Amino acid sequence: MDDELSTTQVARQHQVHPTTVLRWIAAGDLDAHWVGKRLRVKKSDSDAIRQPVSATAEPAPAP
Hints:
Layout: E1 4-5, H1 7-14, H2 18-27, E2 33-35, E3 38-42, H3 43-49
Antiparallel strand pairs: 1-3, 2-3
Region (Disordered): 43-63
Domain Helix-turn-helix: 5-45
Protein name: Helix-turn-helix domain-containing protein
């Protein structure tokens, strides 16, 4: 079973404000579920939401 993260932990992982994580959840961009009175996010879902851009990444080709 996947580890579960709090919205604060997800925010730290992605270096964003916790409110941003709540917005992702509200927009349907990030799946979350309630455990009691707390929202939890599967670690695999958090990892998939946004991958950091590598400094060595090639820019996209122009159309």
